[in-house]
Specification:
It is a single chain. The chain has a six-stranded mixed sheet with strand order 9-8-10-11-12-13. A five-stranded antiparallel sheet has the order 2-6-5-3-4. It has a two-stranded antiparallel ribbon with strand order 1-7. The chain is α+β, with helices and mostly antiparallel strands. Helix 10 crosses helix 18.
């Protein structure tokens, strides 16, 4: 049974399970699903995917994570930070929303899953410790701001091209909003935020997200919020606009052709590099790389020209004139006198792909979800080559660690309330399998959700069956209810994301880190600033934070605390400098706190030499080794040299409080016998007692110099 429950942790659920508990789980599962369905669609768009891919990510992963994880209440599925990181990582590889982008997103989910599963099987869950709390705090605060501001285009009803940095994109958004804001869209978004905030304050158990989404969808349907029409290019009464559309299409076609040519040459570059046998590049390889560089420059120039035209087309505002042959569009300032407009402002929907001259999409209303394919996604193996896997692995590692850290933090918080036993490595296995199985069902990368887990716990869920119920409800929605989602305003999904990420903001985390250690607070602030500045390249914030944390760790390891000890009022040897205690002139008790290894081996000798210089009457050195929990060859060599140097200066030397693993090293190298067992004491008390009897009886010491020894009685510093 133990082996079975290890392989299939969900078997533990059924111990003492009853119909009453199932009713609780059923209600909890449905409640979470009502929050998950609208959230998942919003997060999918944050990940650069069509909204319905959020439903795919909400179908299999919650169930699989619950079945093979260790937490009974952790709700897995699309989350804001992972969605944003997925989009940011894949944006350089393909256009958001394109077929290639979707394929990369699914491949990334598989890569994340394989990495998490490997860590779980190998029991390496501790690797998440590389992401320190200050780094994660700085990153998540920056990510919350980035996620919230990334929804502003949908809130204002505008479209802009993304810039190199996120803050530049937001400047473009505000410029576009000042030029034209679709007021009904803004009203929908703000109203949804107000509804969710008010309902949450009234009663957190009310499904505020579902209420806001439901009301908005109904109002959108009956008010005709979405008002799109498709017209031929000939229905635009402006030759300049028509020419711009044709030029834009030509540029997009040229970008595609040059891009395909670049890909072909890129394959030849790889083949030539594999054939290369010399240390220097061949002429053929140099020529191929030059061709790739030329095409990169050409594509950049073409994209720049297309972006300029796209900007002009997006900012063109038209007035509709009804004719017998249909609607004809004029620029707002070019309507002939005497013609009556339809009273609407029409805008051309321009993306990064070619426009169909016969079916140009014009909008006078707000953007909605649109058609959601009915039915469950077909199960298929993700298209992942070795090259794709290698390309995605660095991003997958960061997403895996960050996603798991978020999930395990949530699970631990709930376990503290419920008293359940949590296994981080089993949770890694559950999260890994959720991403792997999910990728076969067209899911993108997922993780544990704080908000939905809180809903699950608040609803009283007693087992992972609640998550299974959640998956079933999503399945029913995919099969029967997708048509109801058509008129859901995009601005409302933006509001859902904004409200969800408010919980990620934690200003107190910076203050807490600074109070603990100023350098932790500084690392948190730097991680925050770097993440914000380099967004959408979010990995840079984490990398800088981890590098700073490791630098501090190495510095502290290289310079551990080496303290002189004296007796305090509790009659315990303590740091004389910190507690302002008087030290003995003739005996120096030195404590080394930390592993004695290659990075700090010489530091111990430096500090002991410093103490010797400060104490000219010094006769004996006692090394308190209670803080030395490990020692390598360099540490052993340093200890040997210290022993020799002290003895050669005609000073006494002894050690106390050695730990077993350190004694083993000393015995194997012969250092233990060299020092002598009579100079190695079990504890500081017996060592001080033995040394003071020897030293204080020396004939050359002043008669009044040792009557009151600070090592045997408490003597506060005269200062």
């Amino acid at each position: 049974m133990n082996i079975a429950t290890k392989l299939f942790p969900f078997l533990k659920w059924f111990h003492d399970y009853s119909g009453g508990k199932f009713k609780i789980d059923l209600l909890a599962g449905i409640t979470v699903a009502l929050v998950l369905i609208p959230q998942s669609m919003a997060y999918a768009q944050l990940a650069g995917l069509p909204a319905y891919y959020g439903l795919y990510a909400a179908f299999l992963p919650p169930m699989v994570a619950a079945l093979f994880g260790s937490s009974k209440q952790l709700a897995t599925g699309p989350v804001a930070v992972v969605s944003l990181m997925s989009a940011a990582a894949l944006e350089p590889l393909a256009t958001a929303g394109s077929t290639e982008f979707i394929a990369y997103s699914i491949a990334l989910a598989l890569t994340v899953g394989l990495f998490q599963l490997s860590l779980g099987i190998l029991r390496l869950g501790l690797v998440v410790n590389f992401l320190s709390h200050p780094v994660v705090n700085g990153f998540t605060n920056a990510a919350a701001i980035i996620i919230a501001t990334s929804q502003l285009p949908k809130l204002f009803g505008v479209s802009v091209d993304k810039a190199t940095h996120h803050y530049e994109t937001i400047i473009r958004v505000f410029q576009a909003a000042l030029d034209y804001t679709h007021i009904p869209t803004l009203i929908f978004g703000i109203s949804a935020i107000v509804i969710m905030a008010v309902l949450k304050k009234i009663n957190p158990r009310i499904p505020n997200v579902l209420v806001a989404v439901g009301l908005a969808t109904i109002i959108s349907y009956f008010s005709g919020f979405n008002s799109d029409t498709h017209l031929s290019i000939n229905r635009i009464n402006n030759t300049e606009i028509q020419e711009n559309i044709k030029t834009f299409n030509n540029l997009i076609e040229e970008i595609t052709l040059v891009g395909d040519k670049r890909s072909t040459i890129g394959i030849k570059v790889d083949e030539e590099q594999e054939r290369q046998t010399t240390d220097f590049e061949t002429i053929a390889l140099i020529k191929l790389k030059t061709d790739v560089a030329i095409m990169n420059t050409l594509i950049a120039e073409l994209k720049k020209r297309s972006a300029t035209i796209r900007y002009d087309l997006r900012h063109a505002k038209f007035v509709g004139i009804k004719e017998a042959s249909g609607l004809r569009l004029y620029l707002q300032d070019q309507v002939p006198a005497g013609l009556n407009s339809d009273g609407k402002t029409w805008r051309l929907n321009v993306g990064r792909s070619q426009l169909n001259p016969d079916e140009l999409k014009f909008m006078s209303g707000g953007a909605v979800i649109g058609k959601v394919p009915a039915g469950i996604p077909s199960l298929s193996t993700p298209d992942v080559s070795i090259k794709t896997f290698t390309k995605l692995l660095p991003t997958a590692i960061i997403i895996s660690l960050l996603g798991f850290m978020e999930a395990i933090a949530i699970a631990k918080a709930m376990a503290a309330q419920t008293g359940q036993k949590l296994d981080p490595n089993q949770e890694l296995i559950g999260q890994g399998l959720a991403n792997i199985v999910g990728s076969f069902g067209s899911s993108y990368a997922v993780s544990g959700s704080f908000s939905r887990s809180a809903v699950n716990l608040g609803a009283g869920a007693v087992s992972g069956i609640s998550s299974v119920i959640t998956s079933v409800v999503v399945l029913i929605t995919l099969i029967f209810f997708t048509p109801l989602l058509y008129h859901l305003p995009q601005a409302v999904l933006a509001a859902v994301i904004m409200m969800a990420v408010v919980g990620l903001l934690n200003v107190k985390g910076f203050i807490h880190s600074w109070k603990a250690q100023w350098y932790d607070g500084l690392i948190s602030i730097i991680s925050f600033i770097v993440t914000l500045y380099f967004a959408p390249h979010l990995d840079k914030g984490i990398m800088v934070g981890v590098a700073l944390s490791m630098t501090v760790f190495l510095y502290k390891s290289m310079r551990p605390v080496v303290a002189r000890l004296s007796l305090n009022k509790e009659r315990v040897l303590a740091n004389a400098d910190y507690y302002r205690l008087r030290g003995c002139k003739h005996i120096s008790v030195v404590r080394f706190d930390g592993a004695l290894f290659f990075a700090n081996a010489s530091y111990l000798d430096e500090q002991v030499e410093k103490f010797r210089m400060e104490q000219p009457e010094l006769r004996y050195i006692l090394l308190d080794a209670r803080g030395i929990n490990d020692m390598d060859a360099s540490g052993e060599e340093a200890l040997d040299m210290l022993y020799k140097r002290v003895r050669s200066a005609n000073l006494g030397f002894a050690i106390c409080g050695l730990k077993g693993q350190v004694v083993d090293v000393m015995v194997r190298t012969g250092l233990y016998d060299k020092i002598g067992s009579e100079y190695i004491h079990a504890d500081s008390k017996s060592a001080v007692s033995a040394i003071t009897k020897i030293i204080h009886q020396l004939p050359d010491l002043p008669s009044d110099g040792c009557d009151d020894c600070p090592l045997t009685q408490y003597l506060p510093n005269a200062d």
